[in-house]
């Protein structure tokens, strides 16, 4: 079959990126989707989004919709809305802050209580031990292997958004798992069109309003900075 006759199948998958505040979720997403790192990211408020398109093979294009959910949202009422239609989740902890690892199971429980696959099996979870570039951080591979096996994570990676360590490898591993699931007919339990879901649409509207407000605030600050005292 010639390239002109080849049919490319496109997939859109929603993936949650969750964990405590300050563990580097936004930095990892930016590194993966835009290829750069900045130490000056602001704390995520509510939820943010990013899209990554992958030509997985000559017949498959994968579009990942990455939902960057603020660390404090686990305690809020909106996570059930944010989690809808997700087919997988990445849980991130900060190797330099052990308390963030202690919260991993709380996040995994939150996901499993609010979203599952159509066969009522849990969505796959991938664990990222982030900031492995920092001095004095130690990756205990045996402990993490045991933890993932005991708690049914599909695996773990030590990552660094700053040094671009294992970021692409980790996400490729997750995509491979998702494609295997969908080839077996699995999909999120709630898989109606997003345009038919009022809660989802409300969340999107709030996100657009939030973005517009932040943009206005930035423009106002720029205008104020240009003003000269009389």
Automatic annotation (TrEMBL):
It is a lipid-anchor. It is found in: Membrane. GO terms for cellular component: late endosome; lysosome; membrane; phagocytic vesicle; trans-Golgi network. GO terms for biological process: endosome to lysosome transport; phagosome-lysosome fusion. Keywords: GTP-binding, Lipoprotein, Membrane, Nucleotide-binding, Prenylation. Its main location: membrane. It comes from the Eukaryota. The keyword Membrane applies. GO terms for molecular function: GTP binding; GTPase activity. It holds the Pfam family Ras. Residues 208-230 are annotated as: Disordered. Belongs to the small GTPase superfamily. Rab family. The small GTPases Rab are key regulators in vesicle trafficking. This is Ras-related protein Rab. It comes from Strongylocentrotus purpuratus (Purple sea urchin).
